[in-house]
Design brief:
By secondary structure, this protein is an all-alpha fold. The protein has eleven helices and no strands. The protein has helices at 9-12, 15-52, 62-74, 77-108, 111-126, 133-140, 144-169, 172-180, 185-223, 228-238, 241-272.
């Protein structure tokens, strides 16, 4: 009688600990991949600052900027400025997107209105928000309202233009088929036009939100007395250029957080959920 070899219990169960270890290490690997490019940039920055021979006033070192981060955070200046900047950006971006989406659908349903106002929409899309800054300061003086209007304007027209583009991209045969099946105007919007225009709407909002971050820097520099943009330009007057670098880094980090925690979930919950585009990293 031939005896079968004994089962290696260790081998049969060895896969589970391996999978568990990989599951534990996955966040570590993700964090490493995220931080590695920034670590390389910091290293290049330190080498360039050392080799250049410039003083720390003209070319702040990473250690100088880190000390400024700590000092501004300890004094409560940086958290307060970040809160001011994010508040005005969020209100301006959301209100601009809401008005842009609403106007886009109104114009999309009226050919005479669309023909009348579409050239004006293209006209304002071409005018950068910076061109409005002198008038904004004259109209609203300095402060929250001036910065808010600039953010609102920056987001409004990219969203509006992309809504119109997205709705026009929906095939007319699809609209006619839905109407033939007895759909009313609201059902047409909900089931066909809005899903069809959604990729363009999300794209328009992402573009407008990114431009709004740039507009925020300029608006706070010239029309506000607080915020991260104000910190960047005020530091030049006080000779604390390391604070300028702090402001630049903070804006970049804020955008990464907003994109990952705010814009990305919107895209997942809408566009990707409805199968209109492939998932991205």
């Amino acid at each position: 009688m031939v005896e079968l070899p004994a089962r290696d219990h260790g081998a049969s169960t060895g896969g589970a600990p391996t999978r568990a270890a990989l599951a534990v290490l996955a966040p570590v690997r993700g964090t490493f991949k995220l931080l590695l490019p920034f670590a390389v940039l910091v290293g290049v920055w330190q080498i360039a600052a050392t080799v250049s021979g410039y003083s720390s006033y003209l070319f702040p070192r990473p250690t100088d900027v880190a000390a400024a981060f700590w000092d501004l955070g300890r004094k409560g200046i940086l958290p307060a400025y970040i809160a001011d900047s994010m508040t005005v950006w969020l209100i301006g971006a959301l209100s601009g997107a809401a008005v842009g989406i609403g106007l886009g659908f109104v114009l999309a349903f009226s050919r005479p209105l669309r023909a009348l106002f579409l050239p004006a929409v293209r006209f304002f899309v071409a005018i950068a928000e910076l061109a409005w800054l002198p008038l904004i300061i004259l109209w609203f003086q300095f402060g929250f309202t001036a910065v808010l209007f600039m953010i609102w304007y920056t987001v409004l027209f990219p969203v509006l233009f992309n809504v119109l583009t997205g709705i026009e991209a929906v095939p007319n045969v699809t609209r006619q088929a839905v109407r033939t099946l007895g759909a009313n105007r609201w059902q047409l919007v909900r089931e066909v036009l809005f899903p069809g225009a959604l990729p363009s709407v999300v794209t328009g909002f992402r573009i407008g939100a990114g431009y709004a971050f740039r507009a925020l820097i300029i608006a706070e520099a010239f029309a506000a007395g607080s915020g991260v943009g104000f910190l960047i330009f005020e530091s030049r007057e006080t000779g604390l250029t390391e604070r300028t670098m702090v402001g630049m880094i903070v804006f970049g980090l804020i955008w990464l957080v907003v994109d990952r925690l705010f814009l990305r979930p919107i895209e997942v919950a809408t566009v990707e959920r409805w199968g209109m585009t492939a998932a991205r990293l």
